[in-house]
Amino acid sequence: MVFWKRKKPQNGPTLPSRGDAVAVNKVDVDALAPPAADFLLSAVNLQARLVTLLAQCAEQAWASADTQELMSATGRAMDRYRAFSKLLDDYVDDPALAVAPGREKLARHLARVESARWYENLTTAYVLTGFSRDFWHLLAQGMPPALARTAQEILADQGDEEAMVRVLEGLLASDERYRSRVSLWSRRLVGDVMLICRDALSARAQASQETEAPLEPVLTEVLGHHTRRLDRLGLTA
């Protein structure tokens, strides 16, 4: 049985929030945020999927140096998965049962952008990591303060984006033809990634016809960061 509230008190100090947080009105985020357990369930499922995706890319990479970079990124995603799973234990009685519905829904989203080319799957991991990191960081503002601070600290970039950038930069430098492929693929991803983010909203927000007003500034902030990530690689958003 799942309880959608904290089931035991939090012990120990909380961690500070990320210093470079994007500014969105908390009232707007409150209109979108799910219960804490649902927030953590979506975070756990997302990090688990990123672990799998990055590990597959590491295995298929053409150079051993790229494999090492991507294994490092995989480890960072695993760290986040473990950290969010530990938080989730305080909110649900059976985490394995609780994550199943969201895991299946996320798998359906990502199946639409699955590629036979490892570097396109790496582009998916890069876009999804950054986009979801910013979105969940903002959505955390609707959580209880202690949980918000801890979740935002977990989400902070620990060098995994840099590792993915180095691999993608090497690929793009090796042959200019990859640039158009990766650019096209990154544009294709945005719609599905936004759907993944919408699935993290509260059930009420997902069902409401008035959700677009508070959601628009949140997505505008996140899309701005997404565009800058692609600009860094010389790609168009």
Structural notes for this entry:
The chain is mostly helical and 237 residues long. The chain has one domain: Ferritin. 71% of the residues lie in helices and 0% in strands. The protein has helices at 26-30, 36-60, 64-88, 95-111, 118-139, 145-155, 160-174, 177-198, 203-207, 212-232. Helix 5 (118-139) runs antiparallel to helix 7, helix 5 (118-139) packs parallel to helix 8 (177-198) and helix 5 crosses helix 10. The N and C termini lie far apart (43 Å). Residues 1-23 have low confidence and may be disordered.
Which labels suit this protein?
single chain; disordered N terminus; 10 helices; 237 residues; Ferritin
How is the secondary structure organized here?
Elements (H helix, E strand, L loop, with lengths): L25 H5 L5 H25 L3 H25 L6 H17 L6 H22 L5 H11 L4 H15 L2 H22 L4 H5 L4 H21 L5
Give me the CATH fold name: Ferritin
Coarse structural class? mainly alpha
The shape, in one word, is: globular
Q: Which class in CATH terms?
A: Mainly Alpha
Supply Rg.
18 Å
The percent range for strand residues is under 5%
- The CATH architecture term is Up-down Bundle
Helix coverage percent of residues?
over 70%
CATH superfamily: Ferritin, core subunit, four-helix bundle
Number of DSSP strand runs: 0
Report, as a whole number of angstroms, the end-to-end distance.
43 Å
Q: Work out the helix count.
A: 10
Low-pLDDT residue spans = 1-23
Mean pLDDT: 88
Order of helices and strands: HHHHHHHHHH
Q: Largest beta sheet, briefly? A: none
How many domains, in number, for the residues?
1
